[in-house]
Specification:
Order of helices and strands: HEHHEHEHEHEEHEHEHEEEHEHH
Number of strands: 12
Bound molecules: S-adenosylmethionine
CATH class of the largest domain: Alpha Beta
Strand content: 15-25%
Number of helices: 12
Strand order of the largest sheet: 8-7-6-11-9-12-10
Shape: elongated
CATH superfamily of the largest domain: SPOUT methyltransferase, trefoil knot domain
Helix content: 25-40%
Number of domains: 2
Length: about 290
Amino acid sequence: MNNAQTSSRSPGQVKEITSLTNPIIKDLRTLHRKRSRDEQGLFVAEGLKLVIDALDLGWTIRTLAFARSAIGNPAVEKIAARAVANGGLVLQVTEKILSAITRRDNPQMVIGVFEQRYSTLGSFAGEGGSVYVAIDRVRDPGNLGTIIRTADAAGAKGVVLIGESTDPFSTETVRATMGSVFAVPVARVSETGFLDWRETFPGLVVGTHLSGSVDYRSIDYANRPVVLLMGNEQQGLSDDLANCCDHLLRIPQAGRADSLNLAVATGIMLFEIRRPALTLEMQEQK
Ligand code: SAM
């Protein structure tokens, strides 16, 4: 792609920027800070595939920035045209600028800046065999990103962040989701808000707890809505959250480790809860 080619399709829509001190770039560079992301309601997603997935799933793009080295790449040209058609600003920038925005030495050649989007708990209605993951005060962006990705892979319908949680739209979390942040609805709520919603939830609420007395494999999860409650990395589940569960489950362990990593435990639980539905899907594919 060159400016002349792009200009003929979308006059004046591709802006070439080479200076780190350009005000647009200065603004984009602030998005690594949560406060700035919250104020602007925006976040950065890195990589062509993620940007394509996001647009396919209807997310609103505000800015697309691509490196000079991407010029001539038909997929980048196509996504630039889509970004323009969706009202986004399209920037051709240097790799140094992409590095500065993403704070990476070897940045992706394409990044997208998208509007943040949260779901409401009210939209997690609990119909059919819907499964939701609710996490108490998750701290680690890598854990949260991995949980969102795993929830996507297991076919969960949403992720609920309870209390003070790490930002699902931080660069680290978005990276760890590998694009699933665009596919899995995320809601955030206070502990009290969650407990109120739990009263109306028509299905099973299971918590995981190191002192749980029930083996996680002994429950029949089939054909009912399920909320899986996971605890904070350091403190586990709060007492009130633990008390609101129908069952407190434990994943049996051997060896010296006193607990599993939060994201690993969530993965084990999700694939057990979704096992009947996933087994059925597998059989139907044969
Ligand atoms: N020190 C914390 C505690 O006492 O709960 C450890 C928390 S653990 C790192 C994070 C979360 O992963 C736990 O709150 C629980 O939800 C889940 N988890 C980890 N290992 C588990 C196990 N063996 N059985 C059930 N849940 C587990």
